[in-house]
């Protein structure tokens, strides 16, 4: 069981070294490797906080269902978990992409990281965060394969997706070279496309033996998620744009000065960036709740009720102990 996974991990590291070091190093552009590395940090942190914790919690339960040969129940758990993650991470990924520039500049600007490299990191971050829905679903689907002790299929699908990512980077950067921004976008979006294809193929392959999704149900669910994402993204963008006008944080002026080649750059206010992100994030959360209610996204409602129930139980626990 371990050997196929080991082979897949090794190949994934080869992909990462090719995309994130070798292909970008050949461009001989200062700061490109740093910008790409910084751009990966936000999506990686979010992925490890939520989907990774969920997959660990799910795994023993999935193993129990497999041992009891509860195929339908296994499919319900996997399908329901995937829909919940998509309901959360599709709007979240788009909103994080909208706010990627102020997030990156607010966190990374300083020291050896100037405005130009921080802005490159913002563009890279905007691209990389789009992988969050696919990466979240992949975490759950992988546990389904592991519970069924199917590691060869997972490895083959993973290797093929890594090859697609490498091919995209090689063809579009080596044979159709562009500037540093275009190269960063090619590496990041190639990674996103390969992971999306990987998740789709994993879902299709697992669906053959474990019924998780119904076509009509998923079409209706997809339409609701698109509408929910549109409302959430619109309010997030509106909140960010409004704060940028009311309390300018200096990002737009600094970026314009960099493009003009100015020797001195306007100051950037981290406090105002923080306020901008807080207001935009609050607007996005409001849009998410409003969209979930308007378009009857039951998965979002289930997550909210589950979290509320857990909070209520924690509040009642001290009272019961007393």
Please give a structural write-up.
By secondary structure, this protein is mainly α. Helices cover 84% and strands 0% of the residues. α4 (71-98) packs parallel to α10 and α10 packs antiparallel against α12 (270-294). It is globular.
Helix count?
A: 13
Q: Encode the helix/strand succession as letters.
A: HHHHHHHHHHHHH
The span between the termini is 49 Å
The portion of residues assigned to helices is: over 70%
In what range is the share of β-strand residues?
Answer: under 5%
Average of per-residue pLDDT values: 89
What structural class do helix, strand and pairing data support?
mainly alpha
Poorly predicted runs are: none
Shape from CA axes? Answer: globular
Largest sheet: none
Our Rg estimate from Cα atoms comes to 22 Å
Number of strands: 0
Keywords for this entry:
322 residues, mainly alpha, 13 helices, 84% helix, 0% strand
Quick synopsis:
It contains 13 helices and no strands.
Fold blueprint:
Blueprint lengths: L1 H24 L6 H18 L1 H17 L3 H28 L1 H9 L6 H14 L3 H16 L4 H24 L4 H28 L7 H32 L4 H10 L9 H25 L3 H24 L1
Helix pairs in contact: 1-2, 1-8, 2-6, 3-4, 3-7, 4-6, 4-7, 4-10, 4-13, 5-6, 5-12, 6-9, 7-9, 8-9, 10-12
């Amino acid at each position: 069981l371990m050997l196929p996974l080991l082979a897949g991990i090794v190949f994934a590291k080869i992909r990462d070294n090719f995309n994130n070091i070798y292909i970008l190093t050949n461009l001989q552009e200062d700061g490109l490797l740093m910008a790409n590395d910084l751009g990966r940090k936000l999506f990686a942190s979010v992925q490890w906080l939520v989907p990774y914790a969920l997959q660990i919690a799910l795994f023993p339960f999935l193993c129990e269902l497999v041992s009891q040969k509860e195929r339908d129940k296994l499919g319900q758990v996997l399908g329901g978990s995937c829909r919940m993650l998509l309901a959360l991470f599709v709007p979240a990924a788009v909103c994080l992409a909208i706010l990627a520039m102020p997030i990156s500049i607010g966190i990374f600007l300083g020291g050896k990281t100037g405005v130009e490299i921080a802005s490159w990191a913002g563009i890279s971050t905007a691209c990389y965060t789009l992988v969050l829905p696919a990466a979240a679903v992949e975490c759950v689907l992988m546990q389904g394969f592991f519970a069924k002790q199917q590691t060869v299929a997972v490895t083959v699908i993973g290797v093929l997706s890594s090859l697609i990512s490498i091919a995209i980077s090689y063809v579009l950067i080596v044979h159709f070279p562009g500037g540093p921004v275009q190269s960063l976008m090619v590496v990041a979006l190639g990674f996103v496309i390969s992971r999306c294809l990987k998740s789709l193929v994993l879902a299709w392959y697992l669906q053959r033996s474990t019924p998780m999704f119904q076509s009509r149900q998923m079409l209706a669910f997809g339409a609701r998620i698109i509408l929910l994402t549109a409302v959430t993204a619109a309010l997030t963008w509106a909140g960010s744009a409004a704060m940028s006008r009311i309390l300018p944080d200096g990002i737009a002026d600094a970026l314009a000065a960099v493009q003009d080649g100015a020797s001195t750059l306007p100051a950037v206010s981290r406090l105002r960036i923080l306020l901008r992100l807080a207001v935009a994030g609050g607007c996005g959360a409001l849009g998410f709740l409003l969209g979930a209610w308007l378009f009857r996204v039951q998965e979002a409602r289930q997550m909210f009720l589950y979290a509320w129930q857990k909070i209520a139980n924690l509040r009642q626990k001290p009272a019961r102990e007393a």
